[in-house]
Amino acid sequence: MPHHGVHHDTTPGGTMGFINDAKANVAATEARKARERGQAVLVYKFIEANTNSKSTAPMTGMADQIQAVEQQGWRLDQMAAAEGKAMTGERVALVCLFRAV
User: Rounded to the nearest 5°, which phi and psi values hold at 91?
Assistant: First the structure.
């Protein structure tokens, strides 16, 4: 089947929303810089705002960002979660410890 110059996204999970995509790009850049500096451990804080803690649901934005870091040669080793309230609503922070692979 001819492609006709159309690029198809073959990454797992398909396309991301603009904000999550931007956050994932920042996370990937920081992860790459840490590898270039020779770091063996990377601790990264991800924040997801306006979450509804009363319901269970996929945290797609978090998953996209974690995958972006892992694609730079890191593996998630440990994770801690914290919830808080801000003037803009509820927030969840994940502090993730990645190890170089």
Answer: -135, 150
Contact of 32 with 24, CB cutoff 8 Å: no
Residue-wise over 38-62: b if at least 16 C-beta within 10 A, else e?
eeeebebebbbeebeeeeeeeeebb
* Residue 47: C-alpha distances to residues 1, 5, 11, 82 (Å): 42, 37, 23, 9
* Cα–Cα dist 33/25, whole Å: 12
Are 92 and 48 in contact by the 8 Å Cβ rule? The answer is yes
At residue 44, φ and ψ (nearest 5 deg) are -135, 140
DSSP three-state, residue 87: coil
| Mean pLDDT, rounded, for 50-79 | 88
Each residue's pLDDT tens digit, 32-50: 999 999 999 999 999 987 6
